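Hi C.,

You asked whether I'd gotten around to modeling the 259-residue construct. I have! Everything is below, sequence then structure, no commentary in between.
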Amino acid sequence: MGHKHDDGQTGKLRNGGTIEKADAITFIAIIELAMQIETTQYTPLIDFLAELKLYNAVDSSTGLVLKTQDGSRVWSHLPSLSFWARELWNERMTHICDPNMEPDQQIRWAKLNIFLAQVTQAADVQYTSPLQVWISDAMDESHMGLCGLRHVFEEGIPPEQLASTAGLLGVCYWIFCAGDRLWENVLNRRRYNKYDGRPGEMYSKRGWKGFERDRWDVWVQGLRDVKAACTSGQELVEDLIDRALSKIEHVMNNETTSS
């Protein structure tokens, strides 16, 4: 995945390891911690990432900033945050819309999404509307929210099945925790590469590349459809969806573009 280090520059540590190994261990630990602790304890972790991205690690023997092979700076680009978030996503993708997913795994998935969404909301993304150009922030993981919304609402999964899945939990928490960021992405027509921004199977001819307004409308309707499909005993799911829809209404009523 392009995450190897160019050892010809500054990659080797004194003990024979690589800076990428240290970088990976750091972010694996942060993500795993987020999936185990209470969500009320996330603030120190998010503050830590905010501080870490201000710091460039410099090789004491060369004076050069340590970088990964793809050019990402350690630590200011938080190189492994997105990498390991994607790894977890790819590992669990086939299970998150399975109602029979183990409860403990559903909880871990929910916590992962809450953490990434809170990190994303705390990011400083600068949008310049005239040219539709944006300057990202190392803490911005909006693309992971997009992945979840695509998988849950664009692949033709029946609403009655979605009501009991970790996938639905994940997207609802993304909307609660990062609804303002997601809506700003829509207002600024944020795009990704062909793979990351692609539409789901049900909408393969739409030509979507990211956060389009009509795509947002599909997600909102998806939430409504799942709520309508809820049956007796799923009041907690209905409440979760109501909270997500309320957040959506709130952010859309504050339709201002960041600069």
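If it helps when you're writing up: The radius of gyration is 19 Å.

Thanks,
B.
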